[in-house]
Specification:
By secondary structure, the chain is an all-alpha fold. The chain has six helices and no strands.
């Protein structure tokens, strides 16, 4: 493998402590920035990026503790509620991720969204297999 192939990746595993610290610090900054009128656009951008990061984290946690027929404990559901109840996006990729998280948390998909269920089940099973494989080493 050459160096350019080795450096061609799209995701990085990040310790949860770093994510929590980033969210904590950004929350504090957002409070300060929203008090400054000129910084409002930057605060909105920071909020949007942090929401993306916490959505990925929420998905990871829900894949581990949720899934078909599993009741999510309030200790998990409450902190992720914004990611489970926010209005569905018009962007189809974001909408699909929102629906996946809701499905993992036990929400029933209805109407036009039911066609996602086989894909969601396959994705969840693959993730659970991956988790089991990593925990055996």
């Amino acid at each position: 493998m050459n160096l350019s192939d080795a450096l061609n990746f799209t995701t990085v595993s990040t310790p949860v402590d770093i994510i929590r610290e980033l969210v904590r610090v950004s929350d504090a900054m957002l409070i300060e920035l929203t008090d400054l009128g000129a910084a409002a656009p930057s605060a909105a951008d920071l909020r949007r990026v942090i929401q993306k990061l916490t959505a990925v984290y929420a998905t990871e946690v829900l894949e581990r503790v949720g899934g078909p027929g599993v009741s999510i404990p309030p200790a998990i559901e409450v902190p992720f509620r914004p990611h489970l109840t926010s209005p569905l996006s018009d962007d189809q990729e974001i909408r699909r991720e929102q629906l996946y998280r809701r499905w993992l948390a036990g929400a029933r998909l209805t109407g036009q969204d039911q066609h996602y269920i086989p894909d969601f089940e396959a994705r969840w099973r693959a993730k659970r297999r991956d988790i089991m494989l990593r925990s055996t080493f």
